[in-house]
Design goal:
Blueprint: E1 3-6, H1 12-22, E2 26-32, E3 47-53, H2 59-63, E4 68-72, H3 77-84, E5 88-90, H4 110-118, E6 122-126, H5 127-131, H6 137-154, E7 158-161, H7 173-182, H8 187-192
Parallel strand pairs: 1-2, 2-3, 3-4, 4-5, 5-6, 6-7
Length: 196
């Protein structure tokens, strides 16, 4: 049952139709903190949920309103994972930081991965951030691959969404699975990254 996460801006109907056309069974419409439009019951043959990106202090309140709560990576990710416990954290690999001498400074480590597994917090990856990176692409890809290896080792769920703002930015589940295989996931992990 492949799922995708998109960032609507008044174009919910077009995104839902494109998701059905591409073969998704579930679509999450991701909004920033604020008003979430009431969704009309779509007879599109696709399940539509709302999701929110919120600061850690608003996770409990957002959980009452939406199906998926995501926080951005911050200075103290451990406190977020232990205290707020969002469904996923986005952007570990995107923060500007200097890499170590023998490894990438990818934002994750074994301690954080263990806590994420215990609290059922997933690592979220954005295909949009990978296609249009704000840091050098080779640095970004190295960090993502390192994070996937850590997540596999410590049993942390990885989710990948297109985070598209328009229909032309959306990708099919087959394209995303192929990308997941390219960055080091096996077939089962690649399919599970679209199941959330």
């Amino acid at each position: 049952m492949p799922s995708d996460i998109v960032l609507p801006s008044g174009n919910e109907d077009a995104l839902i139709k494109m998701a059905k056309y591409l073969g998704y069974s579930t679509l999450y419409l991701l909004y920033d903190k604020g008003d979430i439009p009431k969704l009309v019951n779509h007879d599109a043959g696709i399940t539509v949920h709302t999701a929110m990106v919120v600061p850690p202090k608003d996770v409990a309140q957002a959980r009452k309103r939406v199906g998926l709560v995501i926080c951005h990576s911050a200075e103290d990710d451990r406190a977020v994972v232990e205290g707020a416990k969002p469904d996923a954290i986005l952007g570990f690999e995107l923060r500007q930081r200097k890499d170590f001498l023998n490894a990438r400074n990818s934002g994750l480590n074994h301690v954080l991965c263990n806590i994420m597994r215990q609290n059922n917090v997933a690592l979220a990856l954005s295909l949009k951030a990978i296609l249009h990176p704000k840091i050098p692409r080779e640095e970004l890809m190295g960090r993502i691959i390192q994070n996937i290896v850590l997540c596999r080792k410590y049993g942390v769920h990885v989710i990948l969404g297109s985070f598209a703002q328009s229909t032309c930015q959306m990708r099919s589940p087959h394209d995303i699975i192929a990308f997941c295989r390219f960055i080091g996931m096996d077939g089962k992990e690649a399919k599970l990254s679209l199941d959330y």
